[in-house]
Design brief:
mainly alpha, globular, 57% helix
Length: 163
């Protein structure tokens, strides 16, 4: 589960960075333009479209989320989060910070989705929050990852929050 979620975060980072055509990279006519203007490396905003048009108008947090649209610091924070969370989950290192950041990102996405379409309480973002908590509490980085090695480094022994 840890690795699958890590790949999901890393893929979102890569697709938004290079407009690889799985979510990012289609123009208004519906044509695929890989590495085109929608790519973050070419000046596209990975957050503006969703924050401007994807948050339902009847969402109680609509004003908050739409006010974030178009700001470079939001794009950088979001993309750093995708990359950092993806790497921590994939490699099994820095799981405390990575899973906390992942839970926070999923929580913001959950709030942005209100009102929920298919269920009044649970959606995939809330499941993501729960998974991040389970991964953190279960020491998931110790299996099929570098977590065991990482936790024995002098840096992590000195600063256990990095575990």
């Amino acid at each position: 589960m840890r690795i699958a979620f890590g790949v999901t975060f890393l893929w979102a980072f890569l697709d938004k960075t290079f407009a690889l055509g799985f979510h990012t990279g289609y123009d208004q006519a519906g044509n695929l333009d890989r590495f085109g203007p929608a790519a973050w490396i070419n000046g596209g905003s990975p957050t503006e479209g969703f924050l401007s048009f994807g948050v339902p108008a009847d969402n109680p947090f609509h004003g908050f989320f739409t006010s974030l649209a178009g700001h470079a610091w939001v794009d950088w924070l979001f993309m750093a989060g995708l990359l950092g969370i993806g790497l921590t989950l994939l490699l099994g290192i820095g799981m405390r910070i990575g899973t906390a950041a992942g839970a926070l990102m999923y929580a913001f996405m959950y709030l942005a989705a209100f009102p929920l379409e298919n269920n009044p309480i649970v959606d995939d973002h809330l499941i993501g929050v729960i998974v991040m908590v389970v991964l953190a509490l279960g020491a998931a980085g110790m299996t099929w990852g570098l977590g065991r090695w990482w936790s024995n480094t002098a840096l992590v022994r000195r600063f256990p929050i990095l575990r």
